């Protein structure tokens, strides 16, 4: 692929990127191309190599072997030019405790080459966008962990970089704040930015990422859209049944046994994964039964057995993730 094709088609290209720490192989031959308007998710357990990959993509860590191009520029040869094109939210907040949010945003804006007259309006715009405007004059050391993460994400956007790296941006945030941040990131993605995201939240990846990869022991184990990974690696469906609460004198275990016999008879190969009080969770491995027939079987069972409610659905991204990461050393 020529430099022209790389810069025209891809915002970020990794070719055989490898990192050794002495004799320890942290990242092993990663190949990846990410286009503008994409949010790419990098999933993996702690120690899988996600942050090391980020550090190589920003130039913080030297690449042992392989190449990285950002907007067609080689990060080894043109590091200063590349760093003008990227915004980076590190895993741990790199903030100065005794500065206020307003001062922090102004300093980073000036470093990124924003004209002094525009620094104030830019800082306030980002504060409104990420919902921390009311804390603008608080010192960093007075902020909660969630607000520090929001500020770190906002700093990554200063200077309007076309490529944004976010290393676990929502760690420590409450659910409402997470949603607010997701909305802001979805707007950025739709405006043509290329976002590279690491996260431990499967829900976050499903909400934001157009493609994702699961990383284990420094290798990509799978790569594709959420739905593609579910179709390829999630086996069958999950069935959750809630047993009716019945009178004390009725033996609940007998009722559960009757339901279990019914499921095993109607869905050959069904595995009872979890039993907690009145909730039963099954994995249905037989993909040949159509949805309409499954719902018909369960509706009949609901009439004859003590089933209060049930739900059936495709296996979650979390199950795909766990199936790969159990091999993490």
Automatic annotation (TrEMBL):
Keywords: ATP-binding, Nucleotide-binding. This is ABC transporter domain-containing protein. One of its GO terms (cellular component) is membrane. It comes from the Eukaryota. The lineage of its organism: Eukaryota, Metazoa, Ecdysozoa, Arthropoda, Hexapoda. It comes from Tenebrio molitor. GO terms for molecular function: ABC-type transporter activity; ATP binding; ATP hydrolysis activity; lipid transporter activity. The keyword ATP-binding applies. PANTHER family: ABC TRANSPORTER DOMAIN-CONTAINING PROTEIN-RELATED, ATP-BINDING CASSETTE TRANSPORTER SUBFAMILY A ABCA. Residues 12-242 form the ABC transporter domain. Pfam families: ABC_tran (PF00005), R1_ABCA1 (PF23321). The keyword Nucleotide-binding applies.
